[in-house]
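U., I forgot to send this yesterday:
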Amino acid sequence: MASANISELDRTNSQDIKFFTNGNGMTVRERARHFSKFLDLIHRQGTTYGRRILSSTDREVVIRDPFTGENRKMIMFASNNYLGFANHPYIKAKVQEAITKYGVGLGGPPLLNGYTKLMDELEERLADLKHQESAMVFPTGYTSNVGLVTSLVKDGDRVILDSLSHASFRDGLRMAAANSEEFEHNNMSHLESLLVEAEHQYTNVFVGVEGVYSMDGDLAPLDRIVGLCRKYGANILLDDAHGTGVLGETGSGTAEHFGCQNDIDITMGTFSKSFAMTGGFICGPKDIIDLMRFTARPYMFSAALPPVTLAAVLAGIDLMESVPALREKLLYNARYATRKLEPLGLCANPEAAIISIRVPDNVDIRKLNYEIHQRGIFLNSIEYPAVSQNQQRIRVSVTAMHTKDDMNRLADVLFDTFNNQLRIDDRVTS
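Result:
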């Protein structure tokens, strides 16, 4: 059996990581050995996974170049550090104060010995930020979504989700063994047809959407979704990871952007985007949050976030409220970069800080990203099987710290590298 799978590996030229996520009749050690060969191959092909960053994260970073072994500067367009909080002096000062007062850790979950004054204060401010009654903090954004779904969705319920919903939400559905169905991305007619089918058939109907979709950077039409959910008695579960701190008059997020901030049933968010930290949160009615504190297993059985993280996020909320110019600069930069990159062919109309550029089917995305790396631009490539073969793309994350020179440089490099790869492919196929 193993030898047959080795032959299959050779035939795929080790391109498909799904070969290793499936068992394919191999022992775990056999899979691991063949995966090592796969890693060797993609490194030789110029993969940029796992680049080691040696500096603070800002518009420019210093990395250890995996191809030369030398330290070099690169312009960072891959980080979700949208507002520049990862290296902000006010936040660093607040973190130092928290270390002096509270130390660096707690060693227990919130329900036992891990609930601090800082966490209590942060939950109050997050609830205010999201126009909700209450909030709870999770160790990661991933566990926030998993905890939300596994805690609330039960037998007799139905979850209707956008086809581009995040992996963490989907994993929660699998763990909950939830009855679920997808609607075509942002297709309101399809969503309504599924709501009509579900009406009066289930104990609870939940609609799961993202405010800003992380793969393409487009927005969910929340005002229309709210109307449909109210019409058919469904509950909205909003993942606003990429909208928080970016959209809305006060930075509250995508719901505020659409003027429906008081109409969202439950909102999930993360600290790993605008706040440039680690962690996540859920905001909603107080009775729902109280229920989740005792039924969301990722919350109950994980250590609480340390005081340094809580202090950093609190300081970030201070800046969001007191320095709106950061958000204004971010959105200006996003619009400027979009205009510069639009001729390359965008995957969607970006309305936040993510710009996704479709890679033509006849372009080798690894070679493309290697050439971009060589030109001093740090980007993320999204390749199969994270997306289908014809949906591979380069994703750009814009921040408030980028300059026009940075964005002009980005555009020049992308136009040159795309054209170079297309010419190479033309020579190969002619």
